[in-house]
Specification:
With 260 residues, this protein is α/β, with parallel strands linked by helices. The protein contains 11 helices and 10 strands. The strands form 2 sheets. A 6-stranded mixed sheet has the order 1-2-3-5-7-10, sandwiched between helices. A 4-stranded mixed sheet has the order 4-6-8-9. β1 and β2 form a beta hairpin. α4 crosses α5. The longest helix has 19 residues. The chain is globular. The two termini are 37 Å apart. InterPro entries: ClpP/crotonase-like_dom_sf (IPR029045), Enoyl-CoA_hyd/isom_CS (IPR018376), Enoyl-CoA_hydra/iso (IPR001753), Enoyl-CoA_hydra_C (IPR014748). Keywords: Lyase. Belongs to the enoyl-CoA hydratase/isomerase family.
């Protein structure tokens, strides 16, 4: 496996993962897939890392989806293996116990768009374009796109984008709620870091439980969702962090949370 297909750096509680195949628009092959899977599982249990940012190398692409040159060499069994692996990886990102921000620095198509959908927050550069384009190749989104897109932007708009396979530019992505915000490409990573830094000021256990309650509550009726929220809240009550938050408020200082 090429160890350079995924770059990783850590700073001030933030891990930045960079898909590093800029010569082919950061397309996902088996090597990158396994590297990202290994890193995500490592970060899941790594103390001190509070937020993860995923982006692409270069100025043209976040991720153009699957590496079609590699795909052309795969037999049917290998294609199924790829699809199962990428689907399970993106689900693990969506359910990760830490917030994940997609820094969409250019083209995000097919599996690249699905990767961004698996993230909690999406911030795009002005030159970004996004689309679930699989139907133009006579296939369908297979890494969660048919499920996550309608939950995010609504069923009708999701069907339009998937059925036509068309790309949309950053401004339209913002208008339909596909991304949280847009900015210049030069400012993109800084904007993502600012968002991550704000999250790092909050209680780690609270964030983990809030994400859990949102993710699982959305999949059920509101009464069950409220019960999930209550159970998640109960987890935060006996923590040292909760007492620290109250003490810091009383003493008019910034809290120092330790995830305990």
């Amino acid at each position: 496996m090429n160890d350079n297909v995924l770059l990783a750096e850590e700073e001030d509680g933030i891990a930045i993962l960079t898909l590093n195949r800029p010569d082919i628009m950061n397309a996902i092959n088996f090597s990158l897939l396994h590297a990202l899977k290994e890193k995500i599982e490592n970060l899941r249990v790594k103390q001190g890392i509070r937020v993860i940012i995923i982006t692409g190398a270069g100025e043209k692409a976040f991720c153009a989806g699957a590496d079609l040159k590699e795909r052309a060499l795969l037999d049917d069994r290998q294609v199924k293996e790829f699809i199962f692996t990428i689907r399970d990886l993106f689900t693990s990102i969506a359910l990760l116990n830490k917030p994940v921000i997609a820094a969409i620095n250019g083209v995000a198509l097919g599996g690249g768009a699905e990767l961004s959908l698996a993230c909690d927050i999406r911030i795009a550069s002005m030159n970004a374009s996004m689309g679930l384009t699989e139907t133009r190749l006579a296939i369908i989104p297979g890494a969660g796109g048919t499920q996550r897109l309608p939950r995010l932007i609504g069923c009708g708009k999701a069907k339009e984008l998937i059925f036509t396979g068309r790309r949309i530019e950053a401004q339209e992505a913002l208008q339909i709620g596909l991304v949280n915000s847009i900015c210049s490409q030069d400012d993109l990573l800084d904007e993502c870091k600012k968002m991550a830094a704000m999250i790092c000021e909050t209680g780690p256990i609270a964030i983990e439980q809030a994400k859990y309650a949102i993710n699982y509550g959305l999949e059920t009726d509101i009464h069950t969702g409220l019960a999930i929220e209550s159970n998640a809240y109960w987890v935060t009550i006996p923590t040292e962090d909760r007492l620290e938050g109250i003490a810091a408020f009383r003493e008019k200082r910034k809290p120092v949370y330790k995830g305990r």
